[in-house]
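Q&A log
Question type: sequence-to-structure
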Amino acid sequence: MAAMTETAPQTYAAPGAKARRRPRPRVWRGAVLALSGAYFLLPLIASFVFTVHVPGQGITFEAYTRLLGAEGFTESLLLSLGLAAATIALCLLLAVPALIAVRIGSPGLRPVVEVMCTLPLVVPPIALVTGITTVLRWGPEHLSRTPLYQTFLAVQNEEFPVVLVLAYTVLALPFVHRSLDAGLRAVDVPTLVEAARSCGASWPHVVLRVLLPNLRASLAGAAFLTLALVLGEFTIASLLGFRPFAVWIVSISGAQARMSVAVSILSLLITWLLLLALSRAGTTPSTAAAAPATSRKEP
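Response status: OK
Response body:
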């Protein structure tokens, strides 16, 4: 009894001692977050101060008020947004059916598709634009008497250059493939397809109402990356002689320094808002299910 009485306080104190050791100071976590925030926010704050503080005049928002009326601002911004929308649509139209078909019918072709989709990562943009320029010069010279001559002229239309959409699609394809491939790995695609088909659903119904809702986050991620790439791309558009938003910012940077910095801040804000909208769309819960194409009544 004496031995049991002596050991009882020790067994009672042990859990309390472990509980007191569990909480750990979070000073380092807060310090890392503060340094990361300062690394990203301080340059933006300094840029904003540069745009609103004019020596001898004090605080003025003239750079922002003149921005909306600047020549080429609205046209270049709308052009970049249109190019981004067309690139996202073309990338998804190419990648989604191909990856679903490989996942369902030919899993052995997955390495081949992966290599083909990631090849643009090893090709420098300057080499890509050099090849595009060579093709655009060769086409009108050798195909002037064929209907393809008008096609070469149409893809170079300054109002909406389709050639930029094709080039941006090639550049964005690796990121779109990675996002969609990760989403398809997380979903049991064969089981979903088999269940939907057994209920009488057609293939378009299976893809649109069963698979795509389950890939909502992956689709939003692919659109997220493509939008960021198109809005920030400068090399290809500049060398081909077009003027989307990124090229317009660089063109006014020499003559109007404060306005160019104001445009850069505004472009970051617009990009963040669009990416936030895409991320919200990707995290919205989906209520779609593998519903049968035809309903059956119980007898």
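Response note: The chain is about 75% helix and 0% strand.
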